[in-house]
Amino acid sequence: MKIDEIAGQTAALTHLKNALIKNQISQAYMLIGETGMGKKTIAKAFAESILCEERKPGEYEHCGKCQSCHQLEDGNHPDCIFIRHEKPNLITVDEIREQLVSDVEIKPYQGEKKVYIVPDAEMMNEQAQNATLKTLEEPPEYAVIILLVANADRMLPTLLSRSIKLPLAPLPDDIIEEKLIKDYGMPKYRTSSIVKFARGNLGRAIEMSENDKFIENKDIASDIMKRVVKTECYEWNDWIDTITKDKSEIPFYLGMFMDWYRDILMMKSGAGRERLMFADEESVIREEAGEYDYEGLKYCVEAIKEAETKIRANVKPSLVIENLFNTLSLNYED
């Protein structure tokens, strides 16, 4: 994908374009944004422009036609290395040493630069981050390291300070709607609810658009949220089974639960129906906004975030969801 084809992210892309135009490419970048915001797309387009054989001085866009561009598009460019890890939630120091620290000592095979892209960089343990930091302290001049980070709070302060930090912003709804209609062939009447729940995240919108059960699962999530705080724990079993029967769908449900509590916060702050994601549940949202205090809502939001973290860490899903429901109920003041 060309740089100018990337939707939104004006601030980050302008910085990268200027670096290419002025030939002042830094040796460490950190793209910060939640999954689906386009970190990997931006990093790959930037790498393609850095390595493009036909890009002329003063230009920022790669040609898309030279051998280097074709190699990068095909995923086999010898000077663009994506750091990979075996465990789903951990990048070990051995993986960093093998794929980055040792490899960076080898000069580029084809051009003047060598680009390393580290997806899920916040999954590096402390030893792996320290190994990366040592490389950044005295990097070869040809090396460019791009860290893709969903949660910058999990990065070492020293690693943050060594990198050019480029936070990614949520996209406007109209841009997401246009992409869904133009690039994914979605009829306009189907985009409204998807765009609303995407919360500015194009990747999430695309994922929802490809999920035939989106409306069904959204209704299940809202039904659970309406009832879970008003029932006893022995009544939760069927809901827990529904949520956890397909592990790949658990993040979807947790995202819906977060949206539900966002709506409660919005209503409690005086927002109207037009600001709600679950607008068809306005009366229930209004009722719950009266039952929760702000401190309780804070605990509920934190509990959902903690549940997301535990699911990524492969904690037993049924236990995670049961504990979450318990926290939501304890903070409800009915």
Would you give an account of this structure?
There is one protein chain. With 334 residues, the protein is α/β, with parallel strands linked by helices. It has two domains: 165 residues, Rossmann fold; 120 residues, Zinc Finger, Delta Prime, domain 3, CATH 1.20.272. The protein contains 15 helices and five strands. The protein has a five-stranded parallel beta sheet, with helices on one face. The mean pLDDT is 88.
Can I get a quick summary?
The chain is an alpha/beta fold. 52% of the residues lie in helices and 7% in strands.
Features of the shown structure:
five-stranded parallel beta sheet; alpha/beta; Zinc Finger, Delta Prime, domain 3; 334 residues; globular; Rossmann fold; 2 domains
Distance between the termini: 52 Å
Question: Percent of residues in helical segments?
Answer: 40-55%
Looking at the structure, the CATH topology of the largest domain is Rossmann fold
Shape descriptor: globular
Note poorly predicted spans.
none
Number of domains: 2
